[in-house]
Amino acid sequence: MGDRHARILSADTVASLNATIGEFERTNGAEMAVVVIRSLDGLSIEEAAVKLFELWKIGKKSKDNGLLLLWSTGDRRVRVEVGYGLEGVLPTARWGRFSIPT
Length: 102
Known about the structure:
By secondary structure, the protein is of the alpha+beta class.
């Protein structure tokens, strides 16, 4: 998936996200990643999210409790990928895929 990171978030936003992610892990024991890219390069948002989720091994292996938020700015697509360990709290069917309005 190359270097397609959008780099559109301000330093303050990144710091806030990092603090939120750290707190999420401390309080829930789950791992979260937020990824912003420019393009999916022909992949579906689902394919890209699953690849990142598996490549980065988001979540504790024994608990499969990871969460990935992927935003492709150029494709105007967002996907939340949830590990099975968080399904009871954040069911995939509820988060699924959705488009950013134009």
